[in-house]
Amino acid sequence: MVSTNTLPPLLSAGLVRPLDEYVEKYGQNLESDQLIKINGKTVAIAFMANSQHLFMRGDILSDLGISPPRTYQEVLDAARAIREAGIMQYPLAAAYEAGWYLGNEFVNNYLSLGGQFFEPGSAEPTINNSEGVQVLELMKEMTEYMPPEYLTLTADDLKKLYLDGKVAIINQWGSMVNSHLDPNGAAPEISRTTLLAPAPTLGGHDIPAAALWWDGFTIAKNVSDEDAEASFRAMMYGMRSSVANEHPNAATWLIKGYEAPESARGVLDTINSGGRPYPMNPFMGLMHAALGSELTDYMQGQESAEQALADVEAAYRTSARSSGFLD
């Protein structure tokens, strides 16, 4: 099994075989968004998706006459109204823990602006630009309505804050939805009123600010043709709609005929609204790591957005040269 961020190293090492001939023979029930293609060749088949999207206290929004936000400006407006009504001092939360989570929030928002992380056909970074600055300014503005310990918050922390009734709007992973909506869970009164919506858009653009992730399968290049074909057929059998519909809440399935429950709508609506996939190239992990380590000074008000982005590019270049991606 492979996923968005585990496939690129296998591709770089030349360990994956193209699957197009098997798709043509046995993939009649595959949807186009299940075909993971690199340079025009199908290298993996996705069967489930994940993304972050909005989880909101519908009761609080309703009491204040606020429509569920669809943009980050509307999220900020809702947070301001909740604070001014004296309901919560810190109504927002996001996974900003320094490291992977913080880098991920930048990636989410930068993708929504159509930003490119690298020069075309190159590993040279290109994030120190107006889009990068706009993303950082939004992330900092959000912290005005977030708990002071925002640089320590993970997805698990968001769940606890939300179900404890301490925050009203979070951008949370769809894969964690069941624990937030559990009528027999820690906070059934909050679960009952929770609204799900696509990730918000940013800056007048219409792309949701959340990267799309997938899990699926590929087939190793070094297995025999007979074993590869048999493996593909077995996976197609396992990816039947009946299997997905027997376990509708186990994942957000990318399987034809899947009857998605309401709990899957946040992820599916983010996909259908034009969410962009997390970049799949062998050096994106180095960029993500540099973002996670170099943005904390900016988030704490210790440097400018431009300097933070320059620091990210410098840290990335050092890693990319060590890994042989840059001269």
Automatic annotation (TrEMBL):
It is found in: Periplasm. InterPro entries: Bact_solute-bd_prot1, SBP. It holds the Pfam family SBP_bac_1. SUPFAM superfamilies: Periplasmic binding protein-like II. GO terms for cellular component: periplasmic space. Signal peptide: none annotated. Belongs to the bacterial solute-binding protein 1 family. PANTHER family: ARABINOSE-BINDING PROTEIN-RELATED, DIACETYLCHITOBIOSE BINDING PROTEIN DASA. This is Sugar ABC transporter substrate-binding protein. It comes from Halomonas huangheensis.
